[in-house]
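Batch manifest, entry 17 of 40.
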Amino acid sequence: MSVKVAVIGCGTWGKNLVRNFYNLESLFSICDMDSDTLCKVTGEYEGVKCICDFEQILQTPEINGVVIATPSHTHYSLTKKALEAGKHVYVEKPIATSSEEARELMELADEKGLVLMVGHLLLYHPVVNRLKSIVKDGTLGKITYVQSDRLNVNFFRNDRSVLWDLTPHDLSMAAYILDKKPLQVESAIGCSVNNDGIVDIAHIDIGFEDDILVHLSDSWIHPLKRVVLLVRGTKATAVFDDSFADKKFELYDNQTTEKKLIECPDYIEIEPLKLECQHFLNCIENRIKPRSDGLNGYETVKILEEAEKIMLGSQYGKISSIKLASSRKKQNLPVT
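Output type: structure tokens
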């Protein structure tokens, strides 16, 4: 079976998906509301069709899968339409912005026997998978604490908050590495630097199975990019710093006060997004569940939803996502 996909949304991240699916010889078409962006991207890839209407994508029989790379508040509606049209779906994180919507999409995909994969990219990162194997073989001892810091600058603030933009990466990664479920949010603090209700900085503590505490820190206002994961066990601590070009991954001995470096484990050098795109195609071809499937997406959203309720308190019910009509125009989303 030759899998052909359409990428919906050709913004900063969508262009990376376009490139990878094209190189994997599976890109049939791209779709974006902005005609200038669409023409520019299409011009770089010979033979790829340029389609402005999302409904036309759904009605094209040659397209097996739909890849959704639009702002988070549009994920539910676009994914639902694609699944109802019988298309396999890869949707960027988060799968939706409410657990009820996430559950509905998961159940719809299962009912129709379709692949539903969420873009939890770090589950496909070679270092993350190497770390997962080290945790599993007991090199670190019993895991007691995990901390993930993801700090960057975002001038556009396309999503409802940093919680829905960056935190899905950290939460899904922690659950994957530990092979444990998050049980509850212990604390959640957020800050809106413009005082407009959109959270730019978030600090969340989550209790996982086996009494493991996971602390997640995410920021949209940090001018210097910092992406660091720390996994501490009773024997050793692993540090994965994705900000570095090399020596990203190191292990330290916990039994000494000298901050003794044990080793820098080897890992394969392959672009994580390429591995993720290959996985999506393989799941369609072989009718198998993705590593980051609908259930994985639902469990992530459920925790984020709980954290947001704690973080916003009485203001939670007043959340107003960016109005879709004006937002689509502003953010160059596909016509639906």
